[in-house]
Specification:
Elements lengths: L2 E6 L14 E6 L6 H12 L2 E4 H15 L6 H10 L2 E5 L4 E5 L2 E2 L7 H11 L2 H16 L3 E6 L2 H5 L5 E6 L2 H14 L6 H17 L12 E4 L5 H19 L1
Parallel strand pairs: 2-7, 2-8, 3-7, 8-9
Antiparallel strand pairs: 1-4, 4-5, 5-6
Helix pairs in contact: 1-9, 2-3, 2-4, 7-8
Bound molecules: cytidine-5'-monophosphate.
């Protein structure tokens, strides 16, 4: 049975102080750096809950696209967050998402949603609400591994362990192309690389929750690493840090 972690119009959130999880591990980094897969596998190894925060930005983006609103109009975007019914559930290998009762888990990964996510990502009030939800998610759990762009810098500044994954843009484009092909789509490497670089720029240059490593993050270049190699490195850092703490 999937674990449903939130179901709401976003305006029904309770803004209270939460007791945080005992172990919070954040993994930030640009698109294609390997953070989603690594976070999922690390969470599994540690028996922790896994949170894919990009899926939240994607879900709101898709809801706005479906409603045909002007994506540059912040009030309209906030209106969508308040009136749509979102449901996020944790499955074994991904976060499943429903909007108004319809499963959109596959749709939120489309290149159009990916390209439009920057609007919601640069909307301060929307980010505030999403970050609050992420904290609420952590509050109900003992151990979490959460991945995104601002998890170590904004959402969980006091996280126990922070990672920042990076990789060469061409390698990141190759990974995205393989993912796209696995889902039956295709795009030239050139086009994917350009989209990735545009997304990097937009993620790094926005004024709220910009993509950057936290000062206390462990930075890992995954360009020449297999996914197992990345998870191995993460695990050995986690063991080291937990040993230091105790
Ligand atoms: O990680 P993913 O590619 O699914 O994220 C989609 C988009 O959502 C990113 O390009 C970024 O603009 C936004 N995002 C964000 N902050 C997060 C997670 C995702 O701004 N914590």
């Amino acid at each position: 049975m999937d674990e449903v972690f939130c179901q709401f119009p976003f305006n029904r959130l309770l803004f209270t102080k939460f007791k945080m999880a005992d172990l919070i591990i954040t993994i930030d980094g640009p698109a294609g750096s390997g953070k989603s897969t690594a976070a999922r596998l690390l969470a599994r190894q540690l028996g922790a809950s896994f949170l894919d925060t990009g899926a939240m930005y994607r879900a709101v983006t898709l809801a706005a696209m479906q409603a045909g609103v002007d994506m540059s109009d912040e009030d309209k975007l906030l209106g969508i967050m308040e009136t749509s019914e979102f449901q996020f559930s944790i499955t074994d290998d991904m976060m499943a998402v429903c909007i108004n009762g319809t499963d959109v888990t596959g749709q939120i990964r489309s290149p159009q949603v990916t390209a439009n996510a920057r609007y919601i990502a640069s909307c301060p009030k929307a980010r505030e609400k999403l970050v609050e939800m992420q904290r609420q998610f952590a509050a109900g759990r003992q151990k979490i591994v959460t991945e995104g762009r601002d998890q170590g810098t904004v959402a969980f500044k006091d996280a126990d362990i922070k990672f920042y994954l990076m990789a060469d843009p061409t390698e990141r484009a190759r990974r995205r192309q393989a993912e796209l092909r696995a889902r039956g789509g295709d795009q030239s490497l050139e086009k994917i690389r350009k989209a990735i670089e545009d997304r990097d720029k937009s993620d790094q240059n926005r004024t709220v929750g910009p993509l950057r490593p936290a000062e206390d993050a462990v930075i890992i270049d995954t360009t020449d690493l297999s996914i197992d190699g990345v998870v191995e490195k993460l695990l050995s850092c986690v063991k080291e840090k937990c040993f230091e703490k105790n």
